[in-house]
Specification:
This protein has 552 residues and is mostly helical. The chain starts with a helix and ends in a 17-residue tail after the last helix. It has 26 helices and no strands. The longest helix has 30 residues.
């Protein structure tokens, strides 16, 4: 245990001086719900509430000092590695295998996005809880209190990240294929089903809630998948999304085996051939993984469990429910545990391959583990530095992925925050060139033009954003402010009227209308909108529309 703790501090200690990056700004710095308990209760939805509660606790311990938040992530990652050790030891009863799996997991570079980013804490927290629940349930006949404890931990895991809902299926498969502690007798299927049934009920409730939320957000059952896919994935149909996701499979496998070229955004062009080599290669890899898992059922059931672990935990993030990303390193945090288990078992087989006196096998396996751990540790430490701030992060992303519109956008916004308007405009213009079909890049470029004093250019970009997404109030609001800055008062009033029609409670729009009507001498309308502004005062979209929320 001590070696896991010390190695975790060595590998991730250099994240402590890092600042907030990427979605940390939205989730932490700009999140008013963290300020007081009443605001937290009032504003926090049931979407991953436990993760948000840890942010709330950090805020009241550390304020907006990033060091404390990164320290929490570091501790959680070490705890996840210890929980993995506990599970593997209970499963195999081999300390060396458990230690090797936990060390590989601890050092793996693909985990930097989850550990170095505060906004991605949900992956790490969920792993701590689900690995701990799995360890508790990995006994021949768990006691009632053990099952109750595992159910409690699993419930907390679901409240951290809903993708853990597949855990009961994996637990049932593990109990059927590989009883706890090799050599033990397999329990009857009815016993295992009865044991796992409370966890299955929790999963069903979580999935039912998530499904209802999706349908409420996106429309009726028949429209949900199509509308989500079109909105979140560059205009693709649902079938196109699934085919594109097949092309992501080789990328994920490469990241597990050879984790180089890590980046915060992976480029999948929306006009790529649907039946290209990537999709076929992905299909071959999926078929290969399933085939190997089946072939290993009798010869090496642990390998089958590891592959099933990877496959099942990848399913929820594989765009079966459409999301905004085809590849994200954070999606591998929990699934990578299966890869670590397979690697540890393979090394332990090598270590025990010769006669008990054949020390060369033991030293060879230990040396190979040391090489892997040192290599992974070096890559992780180097990658942690790239999460130091937004400028470093997005420049590093563009080096690996120069066609990334999100990287251009976020680098432009980072430059704009530092008032480097020339650099900001350059990157935001590149983002518009890469994705002219999206409203947000035009909106961000309009904000940069406005800050640089180019009012008419700002009007042009905000007009395009409002035309692409006419029902989004913030684009019309920004357009109205640009009209006002350019001296086009009538146009500003016209756009603000449309804004309050779309969002009658938008206090800022009412206030701006009041000012414009007052300037125009219309005292009655000015008083009316000032009154509505005071009555409806609440949070509103930021004026430059630079929020960078992602479906994660």
């Amino acid at each position: 245990m001590l070696s896991i703790i010390l190695l975790g501090i060595v590998i991730y200690g250099n994240t402590l001086p890092n600042g907030f990056t990427y979605d940390d700004h939205f989730q932490i710095e700009q999140n008013e719900a963290l300020r007081t308990w009443s605001q937290f209760v009032h504003r926090t939805s049931l979407y991953r509430p436990l993760t948000k509660l840890t942010w709330f606790a950090d805020y009241h311990l550390w304020g907006l000092n990033p060091l404390g938040y990164h320290l929490t992530n570091l501790i959680l990652h070490i705890l996840a590695s210890i929980a993995l050790y506990s599970f593997v030891w209970r499963l195999l009863r081999r300390h060396w295998s458990a230690w090797a799996a936990s060390i590989i997991f601890l050092a793996h570079p693909v985990h930097t996005e989850s550990v170095a980013s505060v906004a991605n804490r949900g992956d790490v927290l969920a792993a701590v809880l689900v690995f701990s629940a799995w360890a508790l349930m990995t006994t021949e006949r768990p006691a009632r209190w053990t099952t109750a404890g595992a159910c409690g931990l699993f419930l907390l895991a679901l409240l951290s990240k809903e993708t853990t809902a597949v855990f009961p299926v994996l637990l049932l498969a593990q109990r059927r294929l590989l009883p706890a502690g090799q050599g033990r007798e397999r329990t009857p299927l009815s016993t295992d089903l009865k044991l796992v049934s409370p966890l299955l009920v929790l999963s069903a409730i979580a999935l039912g809630y998530a499904g209802c939320k999706l349908f409420i957000t996106w429309g009726t059952f028949g429209q949900t998948w199509g509308s989500m896919g079109h909105s979140l994935s560059g205009g693709r149909s649902y079938g196109e999304i699934l085919i594109t996701e097949l092309g992501a499979v080789p990328v994920y496998l490469r990241l597990l085996v050879a984790p180089s070229g890590l980046r915060a955004d992976y480029y999948f062009p929306s006009d790529a051939p649907l039946h290209g080599m990537d999709a076929w290669l992905g299909l071959v890899f999926v078929a290969g993984l399933i085939t190997i898992a089946c072939l290993m059922l009798r010869r090496a059931a642990t390998v089958s469990i590891g592959l099933l672990w990877f496959i099942l935990f990848m399913l929820p993030v594989s765009n079966i429910v459409p999301g905004a990303f085809f590849v994200a390193e954070r999606y591998l945090y929990i699934p990578s545990g299966g890869f670590c288990l397979i690697g540890a078992v393979a090394l332990d087989r090598l270590r025990r391959a010769g006669a008990p006196s054949a020390m060369r096998f033991q030293w060879g396996a230990t040396a190979l583990l040391a090489v892997v751990t040192l290599s992974f540790s070096w890559l992780t430490i180097s990658r942690n530095r790239e999460w130091r701030d937004d400028l470093v992060l997005w420049r590093a992303t563009l080096r690996e992925n120069p066609l990334s519109a999100p990287a251009r956008t976020n680098l432009g916004l980072a430059e704009m925050a530092r008032k480097n308007y020339h650099e900001a405009i350059y990157h935001l213009e590149q983002a518009v060139a890469l994705r002219p079909d999206l409203a947000e890049p035009h909106n961000n470029l309009g904000a940069a033009y406005g800050e640089a004093g180019r009012s008419l250019d700002a009007v042009a970009q905000f007009s395009v954003a409002a035309a692409i997404a006419p029902q989004v109030p913030k684009f019309r609001y920004n357009l109205a402010l640009a009209h006002k800055e350019a001296g086009q008062i009538d146009s500003a009033i016209r756009e603000l009227v449309r804004v309050v029609e779309l969002w009658p409670e938008f206090a800022g729009a009412h206030y701006e209308l009041g000012l414009l009507y007052l300037e125009a001498g219309d005292l009655e309308d000015a008083r009316r909108h000032f009154a509505l502004s005071g009555r409806n005062a609440r949070d509103e979209p930021d004026e430059n529309g630079s929020g960078r929320t992602n479906t994660r």
